[in-house]
C-alpha cells in the first residue's frame, strides 16, 4: 500500500458515526478509504446484497439522513451531492465490503 493511501487513525475515527445504536461508517467515507467512487461501492453491494444482512449494512432512513446532514459539519458541496440516503456499514459489513470490492486497496485491507 502506498504511503499516500494510508489514512491517519484520526481521519478514520472522524468518519465513524453512531447511528441506530451502532458504530458505523458511511458509504462515501468507505469509498475514499478503498480508493473507489461511491457509486462503484454501492453497485458492488447491490450485486452482492445477500452478503449484507441488516446487522452488516443498512440505508439511513429519511429522518436519520436529515439528522446526519444537519448535525455533522460537512461542506455545502458534500451535502448538495447527496441525492440518496447513504448506506451505513457496521464493522462486519466493512469486513464483508472489503471482500467484494475489486480495488487494490480493498484487497490489501482484506488481507
Fold and architecture overview:
By secondary structure, the chain is α+β, with helices and mostly antiparallel strands. It contains seven helices and four strands. The longest helix is centred in the middle third of the chain and has 10 residues, at 38-47. The model is unreliable at 1-5 (pLDDT under 50).
Instruction: Kindly estimate the percentage of residues that lie in beta strands according to DSSP.
Output: 5-15%
Main beta sheet:
4 strands, antiparallel
Give the rounded overall mean pLDDT: 81
Biggest sheet strand line-up: 1-2-4-3
- Unreliable spans are 1-5
Gap between N and C termini: 12 Å
Bulk shape: globular
* Number of E-type strands: 4
Helix count, DSSP H or I runs of 4 or more residues: 7
Question: How large is the radius of gyration?
Answer: 14 Å
Structural classification = alpha+beta
Order of helices and strands: HEEHHEHHEHH
Please estimate the helix content.
Answer: 40-55%
